Amino acid sequence: xxxxxxLFLPWILALMVIPxxxxxxxxxxxxxxxxxxSDAQLGYRFQSASGYPGLAGQFESLGDSATAAFALSVVDxxxxxxxxxxxxxxxxxxxxxxxxxHYRDLFTFSAxxxxxxxxxxxxxxxxxxxxxxxxxxxxxxxxxxxxxxxFNSVKATLRIPSTQATIFVKADDTSKRxxxxxxxxxxxxxxxxxxGACHESSYVGAMNYETRxxxxxxxxxxxxxxxxxxxxxxxxxxxxxxxxxxxxxLAASQPGDSLGPGVPDVAAGNYQHNIMAGxxxxxxxxxxxxxxxxxxxxxxxxxxGTNRDTFTGHPMDFMNAHMNFRQGLGREWxxxxxxxxxxxxxxxxxxxxxxxxASLRRNWETARIGRRLGTYGDWEIYAKRSAVxxxxxxxxxxxxxxxxxxxxxxxxxxxxxxxxxxxxxxGKGWRIKGxxxxxxxxxxxxxxxxxxxxxxxxxxxxxxxETS
Length: 468
Known about the structure:
Helices cover 4% and strands 58% of the residues. By secondary structure, it is mostly beta strands. The protein has a 19-stranded mixed sheet that branches. The chain has a two-stranded antiparallel ribbon with strand order 11-12. The radius of gyration is 29 Å and the shape is globular. The relative contact order is 0.06.
């Protein structure tokens, strides 16, 4: 789904909808006529750089280039159809093209193609950690590594007459192509001399990865009661080139230095690394934005699906649920409650117990009550609770971690309670918010995290505005 002719699409659409001179002459006495608005700009960009441009201009297309911008809006005489097209062109790797079509309030169609450049910094391998590590850096110091990222999207909606239902379908295609820094570390020994040396290497690698997403659903609009939306989606991702492959030395148990229970010796040879695995996702989403009363609202969202890694074949279930409720309490007071839950559950058995089948669950909730302080101020008090649950924590640290007394231990459950209050005052073009927050973590996730934290908050926001 790559729109290679996207740059020509606005002009094609314009020729389709702009009436020909002959037709315009025939209808010169008609009270209504086609409305056309257009704008075009041409320019040239000069650019200079010093030092390493890949860092200073991480998202810049390096070099001089001609630039162009074009906008076109066409409305037919009956005012039932609207065409809108826009083009912003910096160069062939940096552009944005979009087109929209509306027919009454029944049908809409939109398409967009966006391309940008991302430059990557050369990896600095630094000094050797040990004399027995051989470093091979094949990337020249002045090399600028960059990838072109193209985002294409199409969406269409159709309202079913005499009903509250609108059906929609949308598709997205994202691609990343270019050069990237490739880095790998080989702890295997020399194939002839056991424990001869470790190897650290970097070189210019290739990137060619594409992700496609298709979704369809229905939206029900119940007017003053709210909107309910259901969507089913599919996502696929794949690398269009082979996985990086390089030579690795022998990895074998030595007397007094075992690789761990059940882990076999691995012969020297060419092995893949930095895997760019493919994915297959299936997901269902249900959303509701409800108006319960004149000063009460409830927003709900629930998504569940399955992700499968096509390289390993391992599946994973995921779930996201979100809720937000807001209730006005008279003219000045208000109450809000929100809750969130995320789950990632791996559904495969690892080959070796050394590599755990870890799953993760997160939950966080917040309750707030506030009061308006006149016309320009607000005060609130709030309480938050967040929790993280981790599986297979007993397998960490792993048996051949460099230091099994590593303080970054994984604990099965962490909970943090936070209480705070804040006051906000705003005026024309400015806003000041200050407050105090107290938090206590039960069984912190890592020993380096504090169990108790206190914060004083002060935030100043300036919002300059134009005045006529």
